[in-house]
Amino acid sequence: MKQPHHSPHLPYSAYLVERRDLSEDTSLFRIAPEADALTELSSFVPGQFVQLSVPGGGEIPISPADLPAAQGTVELCVRRVGHVTELLHKLEPGAQLGLRGPFGCGFPLDDMAGRPVLLLAGGLGIAPLRSLLMHLLRQRERYGDITLMYGAKQPGLMLFREELAALAAAGGMRLYLTVDFAPEQLEGGYSCAIGLLPDLLKGFRFDAANTYAAVCGPPPLYRCLVADLERAGVAAQRILLSLERRMRCGVGRCCHCAIGQKLCCVDGPVFRASDLKGIPEAL
Amino acid sequence: MRPMKIAITGLTACSGCQLTLLNCEDQLPDLLARCELVYFPLAESGNTLEVKFDAAIVEGAVSTPKDLELLFQLRNASTHLVAYGTCALFGGVAAMNNRTSCRQDLLHTVFGAAEKLPESFAPAPLANYVSVDAAVTGCPPEKQEIAELVAALAAGTLPPPRSYPVCTECRSRENLCLLLEKKELCLGPVVQGGCNARCPATGIVCEGCRGPVREANVAQELELLLERGFGRDEIERRMSRFKPEWDYGQRR
Amino acid sequence: MAKNFLKTSRLDQFLETLRLFGELHAPTISESGVHGFAPLDDPADLNLDYRRTQIPPKKYLLPFREEILQCAGGKYREGNSGAGDMVLFGVHSCDLEGIAYLDRVFLSDPVDPGYSARRARLTLVGISCVPDDYCFCPEEMTSTACDLFLGASAEGFHLSCYSTRGRALLAAAEHLLEEGAPLPAATCSGPCFPPQDPDLRFSDHPLWQKFASTCVSCGACSVCCPTCYCFDVREYPGLAGGGTRIREWDNCLFATHGEVAGANFRPDRLDRLRYRFLHKYCGFTPLQGTSSCVGCGRCKAVCPVDIDLRELTVAPKRVQP
User: Fold this and answer.
1) Which UniProt keywords apply (chain B) (predicted)?
2) Which long-range contacts link B108-111 to residues 24+ away (Cβ below 8 Å)?
């Protein structure tokens, strides 16, 4: 018999369908959760996160890299950085996993409708923004111009490069790629600038007064990009930041993810820059 | 699942840590199911070092050329090298007088005026010579912690660390605070917890056998003890019992 | 006139009656002299003349360490909440308000299963108290966040009930009670240190630096706080395969509290003290604007270096020339 209320601690069971290596330490895991989990995931909004359990290792918060697909899977882009992710990267297809969520607040899609959207991703920050991008492109007519600026340390660390190039070629969006430096010869594919993301933004002409900007990347990136965007004329309430914290419980209790008086797992992980003013520890 | 190949051994030490592992009677059947104990001289004969180990669990400090040779051999042969116990991590009891005593004098005291003294140098933690992948602290470590580590290695990961001082568990167990209420020389605030405040629970101060907690406020602990009338020498002697070097100015 | 007065001489019989409602726990003194709530096997062990227990009653609802999940064959299942019927006797108003605050955190949606299972089976019997120098509750603070409250007087106790279960207790003990004077309506004071302005955490008060330098991060203040509930979640693999996921009390003054892979959002002790101030006196979503300090005085009593965060809310004392 199905329990009337599923415990907020208890992960639904799921299994690993397939894994695609995106770089030396980052892979895309396609995960199939059980039916009840999919029902909960049907309310997923890009920017929200799920808690992925690797049995024997523990749980990590991850923002899905795509909307739960029609075939009933979730795509999670995970870098090998700690105990749990290390274990995840050792798993073979078919391995048992656990999944809770979705949790938190995602991107304010209704507010963004009808406006140009500028996505700014640094490094692994492309993962949460990819789910937003997929949504925007699937409901292309609902939004204004879509632009993705994506910066990585070097070409080998640029995730989803071919896929993004193909999406741009299909005409739905503009794509700007940049790498901090390029030790290897850039081969074919989409052209790629050398420089930092803020440099790319500097030369960009856009309808700043109407644009929604969505930013995700390592902490230092937020600090300079928020200032640059505001200088360019994007209002702070239209600058959306997807923040990373150590969410343990996901339901607003363990308090590890507090940002000022807000909790990243409940009020975020997507925040408006205007809501973070006066909270120095936020960025 | 292929059982892990394990080496368990000791350098300059009392073998107490290895005995703790042998004392995990409840867990031994499971442990033996997950691990093949290829090299464990304390517990069995017919040991070989001529294989690759998934993990080498090494107790003790390094204080002789033989220690060093064995350590290098194990490091080169093992995927994971585990510093097992306080001596392996911090030097431990063998190293407590490192700052005050001369090795040569000690050798003469022990071996008298023998012509050929054994070669020996100041006991030091494993990490002074090789890279260490995981650690279990304690003199001896808690049974549960070594079981956790072996289980985690077998599962392909490491156990999540605990990073609170002895005081946290001590207070939670509703022990009497020996530092505040009895003004005793207790090192609880600067020492790594995980022992469930074993000693203070029986009325004995924390002697610091598990080494420093992360970001220990050593300078403040020193002040607290000085305020309670202990002399600087006595405090330093106590603090160096399990770890010879402390930065007494450290606040984080 | 209602039958609501219990003579001191009948207290033991009253305690026996309470046992009908669950395992009886009450304030006692341990062998080493520490005040704590413990099972009351012998009424002679009862210590009603206590100021504060070292650990507040939160330990019954949110144990220091709790197995929340077991994992076998890759599948997780919930741990046992270990809940049984329990009567907690002799709880002071501050601790009752502490539980009321925790209720707001753990019984809100989605309900915490372990906490709510234990809470549902816990009967609370409060008692009036005499504050000491560490207490900072308003005088005559009386909490109604309990099933039954005992107001002590020279001859005995005036009983007030605040729940259906409280009325059941009263009915079961009716033969022990006498008619007493009607009681004045109790004032429920709630958290008793007023909410503070969040910006105060960035004040240039010199005590911030002092506290940051002297705090030893021992964790005692939050371990002993009746409303501190931050917890860590960790999973340990088992030797036989599978694993156990636990949650354990955590402390905002530990280095790990604000960490993510590769960064720490509260790298210094000063940042962590600010966080503590903010959580304690200003509240987090959805309790923003709520102070959780109930005035029990434990943090001040157990701090090895006499840190009292409330001092940061008043202007610094003039430095003596």
Assistant:
1) Oxidoreductase, Periplasm
2) none
pLDDT at A200: 87
A57 to chain B, any CB pair closer than 8 A? The answer is: yes
Task: Report pLDDT for A1.
Answer: 38
Q: Chain C contact for A82, CB < 8 A?
A: yes
* B177 has a pLDDT exceeding 70: yes
Residues of chain A by 3-state class (helix, strand, coil), percent to 5: 30, 30, 45
Residues A249, C233: C-beta atoms closer than 8 Å: yes
CA distance A277 to chain B (A): 29
| Whole-number pLDDT of residue C193 | 82
Q: What is the residue range of A27's domain?
A: 12-103
Looking at 3.30.230.70, 3.90.870.10, 3.40.50.1450, 3.40.50.700, the CATH number of the domain B4-155 comes to: 3.40.50.700
What is the rounded average pLDDT for all residues in chain C? 91
- A·B CB contacts under 8 A: 18
Question: Are residues C24 and C87 in contact, defined by beta-carbon separation less than 8 angstroms?
Answer: yes
The answer for B 185-244 residues in CB contact with A (under 8 A) is none
- Shared domain check, A277 and A137: yes
Interfacial residues of C (vs B; Cβ cutoff 8 Å):
30, 32-34, 36, 53-55, 59, 64, 213-220, 223-224, 234-241, 243, 249, 251, 254-256, 268-269, 302, 304-305
Q: In what order do the strands lie in the sheet with A270-272?
A: A193-194, A174-179, A146-152, A117-122, A212-216, A239-242, A270-272
Task: Please state, rounded to an integer, the average pLDDT across all residues of chain A.
Answer: 91
* Chains contacting C (3+ CB pairs below 8 angstroms): A, B
Nearest of C62, C86, C116 to residue C226 by alpha carbon? C62
Pair of tokens at residue C136: 């900072």
Q: What is the pTM of this model?
A: 0.93
3-state helix, strand, coil in chain C (%, to 5): 30, 25, 45
| A265 is annotated as contributing to ligand binding | yes
Chain B residue with CA closest to A84: the answer is B157
- The mean pLDDT value of chain B amounts to 93
CA distance A168 to A170: 5
Pair (A210, A146) in one structural domain:
yes
Query: CA nearest C282: which of C203, C225, C190, C198?
Result: C198
To 5 degrees, how large is the angle CA C262–CA A17–CA A73?
85
Percentage of chain A modeled with pLDDT above 90: 75
B215 with B158: CB under 8 angstroms? no
Say whether C233 and A263 touch across the interface (CB within 8 A).
no
Q: What is the mean pLDDT of residues A99-122?
A: 96
List the beta bridge partners of residue B59. B10, B84
Using a CB-CB distance cutoff of 8 angstroms, which residues of chain B are in contact with residue C251? Answer: 164, 168
Whether A271 and A142 map to the same domain: the answer is yes
Which of 179-238 (C) contact A at CB < 8 A?
198-199, 202, 229-235, 237-238
Residue A183 backbone dihedrals phi, psi, to 5 degrees: -70, -30
- Please tell me the total count of domains within chain A: 2
A106/chain B closest Cα distance in angstroms: 30
At A53, which helix (H) or strand (E)? strand A49-54
**In chain B, where does the domain assigned CATH 3.40.50.700 lie?**
4-155
* B190 in contact with C, Cβ within 8 Å: yes
